[in-house]
Design goal:
The complex is a heterodimer of chains A (293) and B (438). By secondary structure, chain A is mainly α. Chain A has 16 helices and no strands. Chain B is an alpha/beta fold and 438 residues long. Classes of the chains: A mainly alpha (293), B alpha/beta (438). Chain B: It holds the Pfam family SBP_bac_8.
């Protein structure tokens, strides 16, 4: 967004004139975009407002009123109550490891399927696609008994393994279609230079497709970070829980604590938001951008 | 092809799983009361917030337990309601099961787990330690489950520390403004609401999208009911006629209340939380809902005086025991778990619960020092002495909650007649009876 804002002033004079002529239209579009933005941001704003509101103010003013003074106790209490620092660390470790392993696995699979043209690759791809479409609820019981047999129930390792596979299934599917379009000239050149299969992969294919891999990495990280259902099932002990599971602690049987829930929601999404902002540039480069230069 | 094979093996696993679940139902322990007495840790889970009445009382109980059991480490973990609700079955069947935990009462929860043999039978301990005498018969209904996991009879699988019931919250300032008295009969209650309507005030705060509306309808039905009706409806003693005098009266009167403007038509989409907030804001003079709001209102209502009374004229009120302490069959410290339950039933812990806005099951009203909480507990003791807990309308059948919400919403927004609604809610009820073979 900052990019476009910076670009407008450097436009040539002719363009500016044209822009002035179509001003009303531009204004309408701008207004529409602003309205849309407000709709998208509104829920986040409400969370932010209520996160810093005291329960008494919430009770007397309702969810939409502005807090008369900033109240940080909700956030602090929640942090201490669930030992949030540890949850952050658990989430970070699992998401990071899953993202790295997931990308690695996707590269190897996609190299074989997209460039290596393994026999029956279409069926492999269909399999990966179907695996992606499978709702997690279906997987729960089989995974539960497998992990219990392997002694991995209530352990972060089980989550890492499960999500590496799930994410890599999507990654393989996507990356394979990218690699199918991979310029054969580059591969032929590598072949002529005497590079083996592995050398070609690491020195030619991976560097060329790095932007796509960056996107995959970011997505894998954020998706794993936001996962709720399987971590809820598999991470039983509080010491092993991830951020979204910890947020669930506040959901009572009949009552909800709206201000503390908002506070937890705010600090729950902040890390993913920060991560997203850092890697935003890799994302904007686009999923298919990097294949051919 | 690949998929279908995977599906097959998943199915096989599921079958193996259900076999394993039923297989471990046996109770092989000889003398269970001393089992795990020498354990060095007690893992304890519950899902009440640290500032709630239960949270405060149970923290104290943990301290007392530590004092009376030096050398035993208490590993307390606060869980999310959702996590326990979703996964209890899987957790209790694994080595990660806690030694003692809080769990929901009811056929679909504690009943189901007891049927699968995942919970320890507490009947003997309850008799030995006098827990059964501390609980009156309607409270005990939710602690006992038969071989099919249906509550009301059979073995004791859980012990509740607190109770809950539905009562009427009212805004004293608004009552004073219109010169109104606390009603003691249903007629008087109607007149009070008429006065508010005449002054262009909607009397009732109702959350039609969740549990509150159906509890009002049930309260109205209970005004014509006796214990036999409750036993029929909740425990399937006899067939219930949905067009009979109780439920028919409930639905018809509820419709009248909507027509007369006691209940706003817009409340069909209101959630319970918003209902509570609108009452704390003073937008409505009356709210009919559960005792679980009490502690929160004590802390949060600053702008007006408020009070409570029982649904006027009723001898039966929606309500039940609170959630249960259960001891998983895989608990490694059963004897310690029994000791802990015993501590939570002690008078001082019960009084602590009562003084923080909870409804203790075995408290002496005299030991409740807080004036506001005294009212709550005296109301409960009144219900308790009349054996007046009638449970909740959505208990009898699985998934019945949503059926009732939809039915009552139809009454509120006028899209269905009372008879249509009664037919609609009778169907799943009867189907469930057929499934149970009754």
């Amino acid at each position: 967004m900052t990019l476009t804002a910076n670009r407008t002033p450097v436009k040539p004079a002719e363009d500016v004139k044209a822009a002035k002529r179509s001003n009303p239209v531009r204004f309408v579009i701008l207004a529409a975009l602003l309205a849309l933005l407000l709709i998208v941001v509104a829920p986040l704003l409400i969370i932010a407002i209520n996160a810093v509101k005291s329960p008494a103010d919430y009770a007397s003013g309702g969810p939409l009123s502005l807090p008369p003074h900033l109240y940080w106790d909700g956030i602090v209490d929640f942090w201490n109550r669930v030992n949030f620092g540890q949850k952050l660390w658990n989430s970070f470790v699992t998401s990071f490891v899953v993202a790295v392993l997931g990308v690695l696995l996707s590269i190897l699979n996609a190299y074989a399927l997209g460039i290596g043209r393994v026999r029956g690759r279409v069926w492999f791809l269909v399999f990966f696609l179907v695996a992606n479409l499978l709702p997690q609820e279906v997987l729960v019981y089989p995974l539960y008994f497998l992990s219990k047999e392997a002694g991995l129930y209530d352990s972060l390792i089980s989550i890492v393994i499960i999500f590496t596979v799930i994410q890599a299934a999507f990654g393989t599917y996507l990356l394979t279609s990218v690699y199918q379009e991979f310029p054969t000239e580059l591969l032929d050149a590598a072949d002529v230079d005497g590079a083996g299969k592995l050398r070609t992969l690491w020195s030619v294919v991976v560097p060329v497709s790095r932007p796509t891999l960056g996107v995959l990495f970011t997505f894998f990280f954020i998706w794993t970070w936001n996962e709720f259902f399987l971590p809820l099932v598999f991470l039983v002990s509080n010491d092993n829980q991830t951020v979204p599971v910890a947020l669930g602690v506040l959901q009572g049987d009949r009552l909800m604590d709206a201000t503390m829930t908002s506070a937890s929601g705010l600090i729950g999404i902040l890390p993913a938001l920060i991560f997203f902002l850092i890697f935003q540039r890799t994302l904007t480069r686009g999923i298919t951008a990097g294949a051919i230069k | 092809m690949i998929r279908s094979r995977a599906g097959l093996s998943a199915g096989a696993l599921l079958m193996a799983a259900s076999l394993a679940l039923t297989a471990c139902g046996g109770s092989g322990d000889g003398d269970s009361s001393n089992e795990g007495a020498d354990a060095k840790t007690l893992t304890l889970w519950h899902y009440e917030g640290p500032t709630s009445a239960m949270g405060i009382a149970w923290n104290k109980a943990i301290e007392e337990f530590k004092a009376s059991h030096p050398g035993v480490e208490v590993k307390f973990e606060e869980k999310g309601f959702e996590q326990i609700q979703q996964n209890a079955q899987m957790i209790l069947n694994s080595d990660s099961a806690p030694d003692i935990m809080e769990y929901n009462k009811g056929n679909a929860t504690a009943g189901l787990l007891s049927k699968q043999g995942l919970l320890t039978d507490l009947t003997e301990e309850a008799g030995k330690r006098g827990w059964d005498k501390a609980l009156n018969s309607s409270l005990q209904t939710t602690t006992k489950y038969d071989d099919d996991g249906i509550m009301g009879s059979g073995k004791t699988y859980g012990i509740p520390n607190y109770a809950e019931y539905v009562e009427v919250y009212y805004n004293k300032d608004l009552f004073k403004k219109y010169n109104l008295q606390v009603p003691t009969t249903l007629d008087e209650f109607t007149k009070v609401m008429d006065t508010f309507v005449q002054n262009k005030v909607t009397p009732l705060a109702v959350g039609g999208a969740e549990y509150p509306a159906q509890q009002i309808l049930y309260s109205l039905a209970l005004s014509k009911a006796d214990r036999a009706f409750v036993d029929d409806y909740q425990l399937y003693k006899n067939k219930v006629d949905f067009k009979g005098p109780q439920l028919k009266y409930g639905a018809d009167t509820f419709k009248q209340w909507v027509d007369k403007g006691y209940i706003a038509k817009t409340s069909a989409g209101i959630k319970a939380e918003d209902m509570g907030v609108s009452f704390t804001q003073g937008k409505f003079p009356i709210m009919i809902s559960g005792s679980w709001w009490y502690g929160r209102f004590v802390n949060e209502i600053k702008n007006f005086e408020w009070g409570t009374f029982l649904f006027p004229g009723n001898k039966l009120h929606p309500g039940s025991s609170g959630n249960l302490w259960v001891v998983p069959e895989k608990s490694k410290a059963k004897a310690l778990a029994y000791d802990f339950i015993d501590i939570t039933m002690k008078p001082e812990i019960q009084a602590l619960l009562g003084n923080n806005g909870g409804v203790p099951v075995a408290a002496d009203a005299a030991s409740i020092t807080d004036a506001k909480n005294k009212e709550l507990i005296e109301n409960f003791n009144k219900i308790s002495s009349e054996d007046g807990l009638a449970f909740y309308p959505d208990w009898p059948a699985p998934g019945y909650y949503d059926v009732l919400v939809a039915g009552v919403q139809g009454l509120i927004n006028g899209s269905k007649t009372p008879d249509q609604v009664l037919d609609e809610i009778a169907k799943p009820y009867d189907e469930n009876l057929a499934d149970l073979g009754k």
